[in-house]
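Researcher: I'd like a structural prediction for the single chain below. Treat it as a standalone chain; there are no partners to consider.
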Amino acid sequence: MKKMREGPAKNAVKQKALRVLKQKKMYENQKDNLAQQSFNMEQANFSLQTLKDTKMTMDAMKGGVKEMKKAYKNVNINDIEDVQDEMADYLEQADEVQEALGRSYGVPDMDEADLEAELDALGDELAFDEDASYLDQAANAPDVPSRDPGESIAAGAQGVQVDEFGLPQITR
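Model: Treating it as a single chain, here is the predicted structure.
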């Protein structure tokens, strides 16, 4: 527009440009108003949904309290305490029975010092004992089974089926 000459044509173009700018401003204001209205509607919808969720939560909580009241009508704290006391009495009786079964009969009370002296004497005897052949049996003992009982059966050195303990398997 700066390059145009002054006159009625420039004024007409200028008037049209001003109308277009006014229209643009009007549309922008209208767009902003619609955006604000949309935001307000979304906010109201969110609040409404929150209230519905709160009501559902409260209904669920009321139902839970109602069910708990029903359940607690069947529970008596005195019964629970009686059962606990009864359990303690039975456990105490079981301990007494175990203690009675664990008593030793005919074993004289021995002095700890005498037992330790005897143990030391045995230790001295073992130190002088040169024959340790009894230890060879322990060294040559079979190994502990390496698999669970009933696991797959392997063939022994002579091709005979053996069980988990290395004993020959009897086939039926």
